[in-house]
Amino acid sequence: MGSKEKVILDKQGIDRAVTRITHEILEKNKGCDDLVLIGIRSGGDHLAALLRERMKEIEGGQVPHGAVDVTMYRDDVGQGAVRPLGKTEIPFALDNRHVILVDEVIYTGRTIRAAMDALMDIGRPSSIQLAVLVDRGHRELPIRADYVGRNVPSARDENIQVFFDEAHQPLEVRLIKP
Ligand SMILES: O=P(O)(O)OC[C@H]1O[C@H](OP(=O)(O)OP(=O)(O)O)[C@H](O)[C@@H]1O
Ligand SMILES: O=c1cc[nH]c(=O)[nH]1
């Protein structure tokens, strides 16, 4: 790791944040009966899988888990090469369910706007709630997260990256200075 990088959350810190967020989701929704978890590719789906596991440990229920690729819904889709990060895979109905949308980092909010449009094309959920591991500020749209692992004040030219191992388990979150 270079001197321009700083670890914001290590494995244990991520684990604690995921556990806390899971409890907050279960508290707010009075359990997991009507929930579905949708992760945004490519890292949000790994975090959604982790939340699903944690919910099973705490509550015993199996929450449906899907993934959304937002590439074609992005507002900059016409401005460069389009590189889908994976497929949208939601093999269940969203109607009348509470969707927990999951992503690694929220910054401008544009990815979340795209994800909400993608989901609304698929069904009509009762609600969409947003869980992120890191909120780094600098929103450009009126969007906020309902569940946040860590708020990290950042400069616009910095970058925050979540690293995963080969089994898609989160390893650490780093702030990278230019
Ligand atoms: O709020 P925003 O300004 O839209 O930024 C947040 C998005 O940026 C990152 O994805 P990125 O586009 O870097 O792709 P990645 O998931 O492959 O890292 C992150 O995972 C979020 O999806
Ligand atoms: O710092 C940032 C900004 C957008 N997306 C990220 O993953 N990190």
Describe the structure.
Its EC number is 2.4.2.9. This protein has a single domain (5-176), classed as 3-Layer(aba) Sandwich (Rossmann fold). The protein has 178 residues and is α/β, with parallel strands linked by helices. The strands form 2 sheets. It has a 5-stranded parallel beta sheet with strand order 3-2-4-5-6. A 3-stranded antiparallel beta sheet has the order 1-8-7. The chain has helices at 11-28, 44-59, 110-122; strands spanning 5-9, 35-40, 65-68, 98-106, 127-135, 147-151, 159-164, 170-176. The model has no long low-confidence stretch (mean pLDDT 95). Bound molecules: 1-O-pyrophosphono-5-O-phosphono-alpha-D-ribofuranose (PRP) and uracil. The site of uracil has 6 residues, from β4 and β7. 1-O-pyrophosphono-5-O-phosphono-alpha-D-ribofuranose binds at residues 40, 42-43, 85, 103-111.
Q: How would you summarize this macromolecular structure in one to three sentences?
A:
Also displays a weak uracil phosphoribosyltransferase activity which is not physiologically significant. Regulates the transcription of the pyrimidine nucleotide (pyr) operon in response to exogenous pyrimidines. By secondary structure, the chain is of the alpha/beta class.
Largest sheet: 5 strands, parallel
| SS field, number of helical segments | 3
Q: Architecture, CATH level 2? A: 3-Layer(aba) Sandwich
CATH third-level topology: Rossmann fold
CATH class equals: Alpha Beta
As laid out across the biggest beta sheet, the strand order is 3-2-4-5-6
Overall body shape = globular
Small-molecule binders here are:
1-O-pyrophosphono-5-O-phosphono-alpha-D-ribofuranose, uracil
Radius of gyration: 16 Å
